[in-house]
Amino acid sequence: MIRARRARIVATIGPASRDKVAELAWAGADVFRVNFSHGSHIDHTRAIRAVREAEKTVGRPLAVLADLQGPKIRLGKFAEGSIKIAAGQKLRLDLDKAAGDARRIGVPHPEVFAALRDEALVLLDDGKVRLRVIKHGRDFAETVVEAGDHLSDHKGLNLPGLAIPIPALTAKDRKDLVFALNQGVDWVALSFVQRGSDMAELRKLVEGRAAVLAKIEKPSALECLDEILDLSQAIMVARGDLGVELAPEDVPVVQKQLIRACRTRGIPVIVATQMLESMTHSPTPTRAEASDVAGAVYEGADAMMLSAESAAGDYPLESVAMMDRIITRVENDSRWPELMRAEYPVEDADADALVAAARRAAEAASTACLVAFTTTGQTALRLSRERPLQPILALTPNLGTARRLALTWGVEARIAPEILDPEELARVAVQQSVDLGLAPPGQRVLILAGLPMGSPGAANILRLAHTPRR
Question: Does the reported pTM lie above 0.85?
Answer without folding.
Answer: yes
